[in-house]
């Protein structure tokens, strides 16, 4: 049960220790992959060193892919008119869809490295945690949801990495969670 909360805790501690947000943004994929790999090293299907390396490479590839797709999608959305004042709505669409797709894609790639007991449960947990990210960003941004300012996007990424590390840890340690729930029922 401790492993479930250890990964997000490691992410929070490391992000707090990095002195600037710019440096943290560069290291977020590394922080994410190492926090999951170190805490869940027994869940790695392949050789552990190779598993660590692949999780880092996959994490950076998905983050870089998300950045490229977001850049092109932002250019594409500039040409589309949804309503008269649609810049905020375009930001919501772009970040929400991009962040959710990144989580699903990273989970798909990580399924080749980590043992996952129940994929349906995992996808439900990923979806719920992503909904929590959107809710947290909506509450803390005072109804100015993710307009493309540096402060809001970096806070979105940090929220994403914390809640997704929790979701991935829940997915990898479903059996420990179920044992904990069963013990509480008795």
Helix fraction bin: over 70%
Tally of DSSP β-strands = 0
Catalogue the unreliable spans. 145-151
| Secondary-structure element order, N to C | HHHHHHH
> Outline, from the CA principal axes?
globular
Structural class: mainly alpha
Radius of gyration: 17 Å
Total domains: 1
Q: Please tally the helical runs, counting DSSP H or I stretches of 4 or more residues.
A: 7
Strand content: under 5%
Major sheet: none
Query: How far apart are the termini?
Result: 17 Å
- Mean pLDDT over all positions: 81
Notes on the protein architecture:
This protein has 186 residues and is an all-alpha fold. It has one domain. 79% of the residues lie in helices and 0% in strands. The longest helix is centred in the middle third of the chain and has 31 residues, at 48-78. The protein is globular and about 55 Å long. Residues 145-151 have low confidence and may be disordered.
Give a quick precis of the structure.
It is built from seven helices and no strands. The protein is mostly helical and 186 residues long. The model is unreliable at 145-151 (pLDDT under 50).
Q: What are the main properties of this structure?
A:
single chain, about 190 residues, mainly alpha, about 80% helix, about 0% strand
